Amino acid sequence: MPSSNDTPKEEPPGISSRDQAPSGAAPSAQAAGRGSTDPARPGDDTRLALITAAIGLFGKKGFDATSTREIASAANANLASIAYHFGGKDGLRLACADSVAGRIQAVVGPVLRDFDPGDDPALAQSGMESVVMSMADFLLGRAEARDIAAFVLSEMTKPGVVLDRIYEDFFKTVHAALCRLLGLATGQDPESDLIRIGTFSIVGQVVYFRIGHAIVARRMGWETVGPVEIDAIKSVLLGNIRAFVTANRKTSK
Amino acid sequence: MPSSNDTPKEEPPGISSRDQAPSGAAPSAQAAGRGSTDPARPGDDTRLALITAAIGLFGKKGFDATSTREIASAANANLASIAYHFGGKDGLRLACADSVAGRIQAVVGPVLRDFDPGDDPALAQSGMESVVMSMADFLLGRAEARDIAAFVLSEMTKPGVVLDRIYEDFFKTVHAALCRLLGLATGQDPESDLIRIGTFSIVGQVVYFRIGHAIVARRMGWETVGPVEIDAIKSVLLGNIRAFVTANRKTSK
DNA sequence: CAGTATAAATCAATCGATTGATTAATACTG
DNA sequence: CAGTATTAATCAATCGATTGATTTATACTG
User: Fold this and answer.
1) Cα–Cα distance between A208 and A198 in angstroms, integer?
2) Radius of gyration over every alpha carbon of chain B, rounded to an integer in angstroms
3) In chain A, which segments carry CATH 1.10.10.60?
4) Phi-psi region for residue A219, left (φ > 0), alpha (ψ -120 to 50) or beta?
5) Which residues numbered 43-72 in chain A sit less than 7 A from strand D, measured from CB?
6) Is the CB of A232 under 7 A from strand D?
7) What is the CATH number of domain A15-86?
8) Three-state DSSP state, B189
9) Which of residues 29-58 of B touch strand D (CB under 7 A)?
């Protein structure tokens, strides 16, 4: 038995590198539902169940308020499986960040990539509007999205590895794409302070209605935030986007 | 030993009712720095130190991630003093909410109360603008305000007694006052959905730049968020307010 | 295909450390 | 001295992590 046992034991899978989308042109079916064909390793069930349960609990109660026993119980898994699959609670948090970033990227990525406004400002504006409206639907509407959003937002305030990853994988790309649209719609430089900050101010509104939805609902006299209430919010958001474009449209010169 | 020991023990001071601003026309010096004159009970030093330390730690690390020992140590107080003064960790959280609500109310309350735009839309708009600009300065600028804001925002997501109190003491009043101004500026009904949601969308932008300041700074290439960067944000926010008023101004009719 | 060896994954049980809370004794103050 | 306030010490409970054993799935061999 050698004494220089530097590596912990036998390196459980996926504690140091990314877990999903392992290589460049990987089979995209891995992150999705249930790959019954090829790369369905037996432990992936537990992996996914743990991540799903953790995102929900982290979003609802916060990271520190959620115990590993709670997560394992919600995922119908054993307590030790967290350490086995993710190296520990922090590894699970990171895996949740990857999962969230990957899922959102899978939804919003193709839309932003395939949508080419050319040089048509009106088309760019309508693209911007539809993206923001989709964001609002996602953040305010679906119950599963609430957990994801709450998890991301809880990680947004505290700097760390999770924030780095979410930023690189999601925020940077999406924000830059939106700046392209808004810049084209207004005729401004997409990377100007006005457009970059303006884009933040627009998406910030959507985010706020998720964070403060309890306060908003109370002030509005809403018992729940259903489709009708979401439409009311979206109506104002849409007006704000158009007001921004109108107010900041560069005169032809 | 009696068996029907319903009341916990001997009811330490201030676990059930409000502690600060006990009556209506209370001396406003109590919440402020150091009342060396009259109602300075000996234990108030520890009380205030605990609340201050707790707000800072709750804001920075979150409620659940902050231990009572950490708070007591930061406040140079004994661990048991938390239970003595506030009945427990949850009581301290509630006292923090009271303190925050009281302090903000003391700052923003008189401004909103004494400012009477009459029926001048232009005056109402400039009032709205200055209030939002002050909010931005407070939330983005001062370091002490960051803890307060972070504490409030961390409590905003999870319903509970703290949220109730903050809402009643702060959000409801301020939001209604802002709606008056925005309604007058646009000529719309201050309690219409448009104005109420629109007001949320405006203050939501300010809040977002506090929550997402790490992401914003990274995307903008800012190393720190100093006065220059705050001015850049405020410039866009000001433009958004004016764009909202312009876009939603009711034609005289 | 049968039989064995290896690896991956799950399991119950337990570890030391830390949590919030509580106690009894002491110090301060008017 | 009486009441308020602070202190050190201790409580049961729970935390994240780890262990060794066990089960399950895959690979190898003849």
Assistant:
1) 15
2) 21
3) 15-86
4) alpha
5) 66-70
6) no
7) 1.10.10.60
8) coil
9) 41-43, 45-46
Q: What is the residue whose two structure tokens read 């922090």? A: A90
Distance from CA of A194 to the nearest CA of B (A): 7
> Does the C-beta of B40 come within 7 A of strand C?
no
- Name the fold adopted by B96-248: Tetracycline Repressor; domain 2 (1.10.357)
What would the pLDDT profile of B95-106 be if each residue is shown by its tens digit?
Answer: 999 999 888 888
Residue extent(s) of CATH 1.10.357.10 domains in chain A: 96-248
- Ordered per-residue pLDDT tens for chain A, 253 residues: 333 333 333 445 444 434 333 322 222 223 333 333 334 566 688 999 999 999 999 999 999 999 999 999 999 999 999 999 999 999 999 999 999 988 888 877 888 888 888 899 999 999 999 999 999 998 898 887 888 988 998 898 888 889 998 898 888 989 999 999 999 999 999 999 999 999 999 999 999 999 999 999 999 999 999 999 999 999 999 999 999 999 999 875 4
Write the DSSP assignment of A104-169 as a string of letters. HHHHHHHHHHH---TT-HHHHHHHHHHHHHHHHIIIII-HHHHHHHHHHHHHHSS-SHHHHHHIII
Q: Would the CB atoms of A201 and B232 count as touching at under 8 Å? A: no
Residue B217 to residue A172: CA distance in whole angstroms? 12
Among partner residues A64, A156, A175, which is closest to B65 by beta-carbon distance?
A64
Cβ of B81 near strand D (distance < 7 A): yes
What is the pTM assigned to this prediction?
0.84
Q: Kindly determine whether residue B207 and residue A205, on different chains, have CB atoms separated by under 8 Å.
A: no
